[in-house]
């Protein structure tokens, strides 16, 4: 048996892609930003140790506007079926061809649900979509003007969207069977050889390389003894953070200290000990190395 065809919709650069695979070897070649990494990243998620998770950034940019269109239909109180037909979902379909006389079909048997003894195809569909019966709760949570709609969407998609996997009868698409992702992992034995590079566009690496580069550039500019444009920029950055620090020292910590009385319920600190207070320190270097991300420019504030 072999994977005969892969259909992908709405995942990153793969907005609508059909791939036909050779029985022995399929080589995918393309320039940068053509979707090669998107393809490998998708299968690494599908075959991971748990049910795959996605985010708004994983949806192809071309379908982001459909979320807003669906929201407008929701406001107009259109039918649930009409609203759901507009809401984007990430879809992956696998068409697997097998030899009916083969003896090693145990791992594929869960996906064979047709009763046609002449059919030698199994169809698998993985979908990341809004959970059943959750349209009202979903749109009520992110209710807002368009300029902030997509920021709210980033937060609530992981809460209301679910990933499902099902077998589909190739002769009758209404005949389906829900399965577990462990069935897919036992079926597809895949190994990955990742590129030896620090800068990548996948989610596997915890290194934010460009953020660390910015930190190094900032330190170099700050330590410069000459009045260069970089030195002036670093001074402006420090001044901006100083202004934020003033707000943290007052408003933020004044509110944060209200959480401390919980300690006093347990007699902490002691009767003779000084009272506790909070101090939150903010540094440009920490912002650059730990909290600054370099992204490709997207749309509607989703980068």
Commentary on this structure:
With 303 residues, this protein is of the alpha+beta class. Helices cover 37% and strands 17% of the residues. It is built from 10 helices and 6 strands. It has helices at 36-46, 64-75, 80-86, 135-141, 146-160, 181-187, 209-223, 229-256, 261-264, 284-290, and strands at 2-11, 14-20, 90-97, 121-130, 161-169, 172-178. A 6-stranded antiparallel sheet has the order 2-1-3-4-5-6. A hairpin with a 2-residue loop joins strand 5 and strand 6 (172-178). The longest helix has 28 residues, at 229-256. The protein is globular, with a radius of gyration of 26 Å. The two termini are 40 Å apart.
Number of strands: 6
- Total helices: the number is 10
| Uncertain runs | none
Within the largest sheet, what's the order of strands?
2-1-3-4-5-6
- Inertia-based shape: globular
Helix percentage range: 25-40%
Strand percentage = 15-25%
Oligomer: single chain
Head-to-tail CA distance between termini: 40 Å
N-to-C series of helices and strands: EEHHHEEHHEEHHHHH
Class inferred from helices and paired strands? alpha+beta
- How would you state the average pLDDT, rounded? 85
Compute the gyration radius: what is it? 26 Å
Biggest sheet character? 6 strands, antiparallel
